[in-house]
Design goal:
- By secondary structure, the chain is an all-alpha fold.
- It contains twelve helices and no strands.
- The protein has helices at residues 2-47, 49-61, 75-88, 116-131, 135-145, 149-152, 156-177, 179-190, 198-201, 211-214, 217-228, 240-256.
- Helix 5 packs antiparallel against helix 7 (156-177).
Length: 257
Amino acid sequence: CKLLYLIIMKKYCFVLSFLMCVFISSCENENICLTSKSKVEELKKISEYHSSGLDAIYTQLAGSSTRSISSNVTRKDIIRLASDYIYSQSKLENFKTRSLSPSEQISDTIVRQLSPKADSLFNEYFTNLVKSSSKESMLSYVESLLREETFMSLDSGEQNFLTFMMYIGIDSAEYWSNPYNLDKWMSLKTNSPITTTRSVAGPAGRYWLTRKQINNPAFQKILGADCRGCGYSLLCGFSPWGWAAGGIAGSVDAALF
């Protein structure tokens, strides 16, 4: 009887231990998910500074009378303007404690590259972006991608970086789909009149990629540069705010040079 009792208790303890492990693991996974969701929302929110940053730089580059870009403007000037815009945001108290790189140290090359696995995921995403029918469909696509095993196998830093790049792409697609935005930047580049007015273009929220834009290599170049430009982040430190500055700089660079 004593032997039987010991066997039963041993099995009971084993089962109890197993259930406790499952419970603890479940809690840990739930916390990881909650933390990830919080981080994703943070990245999404910061990515929305992309469009306002583009407009801020446009205002500085376009003289109120000439609406043309100076021939003296360089890529480093664009990167500096993007950095200054991000640095000027009132919500970035922690970010402001860091010093920005001096202008002579700013590189005009990408300083952060994706790993082959992450690059493959980004190319898959970008193919879907230029074929997408709406912003909502791309937001759903990204949410689904974040749960894929291949994405989850990336280290946390690259997960965040790739996620931010994808949200920048969505914000960029919405911005450049507006014919007024595209026209005003092209007129700045060519020193020609803006042919599309705000009233004709209508509210920004009503636009998404048209077939003509999707089939335009120059348009795709701008979208890709917005995303890849996040790799300029050395100029503001390796953080989402630095990535945001890089995305803005990459976008302006592709539009004007």
